[in-house]
Amino acid sequence: MSHLKYLHLTPDSELPALEGLRQFKAIIIAEAEVHETMMWDISRWLIAEGCQYALAWGKDAEAWREAIDDAALEAVNYEDIPDEQKVLITSHEDDDLDEVFWFARHRAAHPAHELQQTLILHIADAPRREEIEAEYHDA
Questions:
Q1: β-strand 117-123 against 24-30: which pairing, if any?
Q2: What is the pLDDT of residue 36?
Q3: InterPro entries attached here (predicted)?
Q4: Residue 126 phi/psi, 5° resolution?
Q5: What's the CATH number of domain 22-138, 1.10.10, 3.90.190, 3.40.50, 3.30.70?
Q6: ∠ CA 31-33-35, rounded to 5°
């Protein structure tokens, strides 16, 4: 049984503490463009909060993948990372969102952890919680 948390951020939101999440998957739905420094702040914040697997979709998905990858490396001072600390990151710029959700639910697995929690990080001008959560559960 996996636990789903939805979080909406606008491109200039403050980053909240993520209560009750540790060792989780994050699905970044980037519907709004964010400034590069904000992308870096969010990426570092995800790693610091315990993200172990990130799936980037939407605007600048590949840039998100690179930023999160760099944040994960920065967190271990660019040393070799043991499996239990590895952060897996995928970019899904050519996929439909339902395909990303299906992949997150059925294929995205970590080599060292059973990731029971999923954070949907929705970066957009307005939230769409019910619609996005329904689409995730249908995948």
A1: parallel
A2: 94
A3: DUF7684
A4: -135, 145
A5: 3.90.190
A6: 150
1: pLDDT strictly greater than 60: no
Q: At what angle do helices 61-75 and 36-49 cross, to 10 degrees?
A: 50
pLDDT confidence band for 79 (50 / 70 / 90):
very high
Res. 87 pLDDT band, cuts 50 70 90: very high
Phi-psi region of 78 (alpha: psi -120 to 50; beta: other; left: phi over 0): left
Q: How far apart are CA 70 and CA 60, in angstroms?
A: 15
Determine if the pTM surpasses 0.85: yes
Q: Looking at residues 98-118, what average pLDDT do you find?
A: 94
Give the tokens for residue 44: 């570092």
Domain borders along the chain are 22-138
Q: Rounded to whole angstroms, how far apart are CA atoms 137 and 133?
A: 6
